[in-house]
């Protein structure tokens, strides 16, 4: 891969970052220890394996540099001197696995991952990092992956990260009788300039895009709250700290609820998040807000089969989470009705399509206006809730089966909570990222998600 301009949306994510608001997304992947002789011996061997496989992923060899044209722009350049071992670190939890067990290891790994997620990625080199987290005495281990949002959106991150697994790593990188080779695959650079026949089509498309952006901007103005008063913990001043929590939901139970409630699995998950927030607020002794907290629900604009395409391709919906509704079943109905309205309007309209507007702004606007734009996020929404698709097949790393993947979304300025969900192995894995001082009891919110599922199941008629 040679050079490639950052899209306007990529630039937005690049310039939105600050020391207290790192703009990387992540995932905490938990693996069972290998049982056969072909499996990896431990975290040290996994580091070697990750080094070999990540060096064979061209996207992970790219770093950002400023360019003269367009003014204020930047481009991805291949870092020919990259040493991937500077991007992969081994860290150890404090407690032996034999003493704390699987649940204790996950709690320790999650706590440690929260501290690691606080650290911004180094901007002078390819913006990604991996940490292999293990107990002092073996047992399961975890891999925390951090990718800058300018490098990848959720679907693109999955496409990049899939290259580390045994089942997906390129066969060319697995020579007989040895470890995977570290040769990078060459990808021809993309031209920055369109051909003559493309110019007319680009001009027409640009006019259409600008008209759409104007509509989104008008919707954002109408939807903005000049004095947002919601849940105090969700609107607290940022401390720059991060706390993570995880939850596991039974996918079969979620699907059973969906069959009875209608809509989609994602509608049900959004309803579960609303119910968990309500339970958590009441448990804290807080008064329920006068207005429903707003969720920004990202929507991928990638075409099927185009997950490998570069650049962020995102839009979004705004959704009021009905935390004041005491009936779980009615909460689901309200979420489904609101999402049906969003889907009818489409992902390219409405205030939630803020990414569509960002994609139409010039490079200089992102370079100098990012701090102002970032501060305006709280005027539109209170919490991010996103779903990340994962491969359905069983995956492993060095012969160690993948047990769970907890996705982690970044926090925008003025935001204290982000919720990300993924399905794998018959479970819905929930990753919660929060400002550590604003939500010190984040683990309680994770537990309340399971409570919401349990109550919904009791309200279902027998099958």
What topology emerges from the helices and strands here?
Elements (H helix, E strand, L loop, with lengths): L2 E3 L2 H9 L7 E8 L11 H13 L6 E5 L7 E5 L9 E5 L4 H21 L10 E7 L6 E8 L5 H8 L34 H28 L18 E9 H11 L3 H19 L10 E7 L13 E7 L7 H18 L8 H5 L4 H13 L1 H4 L2 E5 L8 E2 L2 E9 L8 E8 L2 E9 L6 H17 L5
Parallel strand pairs: 5-6, 9-11, 11-14
Antiparallel strand pairs: 1-4, 2-7, 2-13, 3-4, 6-7, 8-15, 9-10, 12-13, 14-15
Helix pairs in contact: 1-10, 6-7, 7-8, 7-12
Quick structural summary:
The chain has 463 residues and is of the alpha+beta class.
Notes on the protein architecture:
By secondary structure, the protein is of the alpha+beta class. The protein folds into two domains: 3-169, Chloramphenicol Acetyltransferase (2-Layer Sandwich); 202-390 and 406-458, Nonribosomal peptide synthetase, condensation domain (Chloramphenicol Acetyltransferase, 2-Layer Sandwich). The protein has twelve helices and 15 strands. The protein has helices at 8-16, 43-55, 97-117, 154-161, 196-223, 251-261, 265-283, 328-345, 354-358, 363-375, 377-380, 442-458, and strands spanning 3-5, 24-31, 62-66, 74-78, 88-92, 128-134, 141-148, 242-250, 294-300, 314-320, 383-387, 396-397, 400-408, 417-424, 427-435. It has a six-stranded mixed β-sheet, with helices on both faces. Strands 8-15-14-11-9-10 form a six-stranded mixed β-sheet. Strands 1-4-3 form a three-stranded antiparallel β-sheet, with no helix packed on it. Strand 12 and strand 13 form a beta hairpin. It is globular. It starts with a strand and ends in a 5-residue tail after the last helix. Mean pLDDT is 82; it is low at 171-194 and 196-207.
């Amino acid at each position: 891969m040679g050079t490639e301009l950052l899209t306007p949306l990529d630039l937005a994510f690049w310039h939105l970052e600050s020391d207290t608001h790192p703009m990387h997304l992540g995932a905490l992947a938990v693996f069972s220890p290998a049982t056969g002789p072909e499996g990896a011996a431990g975290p040290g061997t996994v580091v070697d394996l990750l080094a070999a496989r990540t060096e064979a992923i061209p996207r992970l060899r790219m770093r950002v540099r400023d360019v003269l044209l367009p003014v204020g722009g930047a481009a991805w350049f291949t870092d020919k001197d990259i040493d991937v071992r500077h991007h992969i670190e081994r860290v150890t939890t404090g407690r032996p696995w034999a003493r704390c067990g699987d649940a204790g290891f996950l709690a320790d790994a999650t706590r440690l991952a929260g501290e690691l997620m606080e650290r911004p990625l180094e901007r002078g080199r390819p913006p990604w990092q991996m940490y292999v987290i293990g107990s002092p005495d073996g047992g399961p281990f975890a891999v925390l992956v951090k990718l800058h949002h300018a490098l990848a959106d959720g679907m693109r991150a999955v496409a990049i990260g899939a290259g580390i697994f045994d089942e997906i790593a390129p066969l060319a990188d697995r020579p007989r009788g040895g470890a995977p080779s570290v040769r990078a695959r060459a990808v021809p650079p993309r031209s920055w300039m369109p051909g003559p026949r493309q110019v007319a089509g680009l001009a027409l498309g640009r006019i259409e895009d600008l008209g759409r952006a104007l509509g989104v901007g008008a919707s954002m103005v109408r939807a903005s709250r000049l004095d947002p008063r919601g849940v105090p913990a969700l609107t607290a001043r940022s401390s720059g700290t991060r706390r993570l929590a995880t939850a596991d939901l039974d996918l079969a139970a979620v699907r059973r609820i969906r069959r009875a409630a209608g809509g989609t699995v994602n509608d049900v998950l959004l309803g579960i998040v609303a119910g968990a927030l309500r339970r958590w607020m009441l448990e804290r002794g807080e008064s329920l807000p006068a207005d429903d907290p707003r969720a920004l629900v990202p929507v991928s604009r990638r075409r099927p089969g185009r997950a490998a395409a570069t650049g962020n391709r995102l839009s979004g919906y705004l959704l009021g989470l009905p935390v004041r509704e005491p009936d779980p079943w009615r909460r689901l109905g309200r979420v489904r009705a609101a999402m049906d309205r969003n889907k009818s309007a489409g992902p390219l309209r409405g205030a939630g399509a803020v990414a569509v507007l960002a994609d139409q702004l010039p490079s200089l606007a992102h370079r100098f206006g990012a701090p102002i734009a970032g501060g305006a996020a709280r005027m539109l929404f209170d919490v991010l809730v996103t779903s990340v698709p994962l491969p359905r097949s069983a995956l492993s790393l060095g012969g160690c089966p993948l047990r769970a993947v907890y996705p982690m979304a970044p926090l925008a300025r003025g935001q204290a909570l982000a919720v990300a969900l993924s399905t794998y192995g018959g479970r819905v894995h929930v990753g919660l990222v929060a400002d550590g001082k604003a939500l010190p009891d984040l683990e309680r919110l994770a537990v309340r998600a399971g409570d919401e599922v349990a109550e919904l199941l009791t309200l279902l008629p027998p099958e």
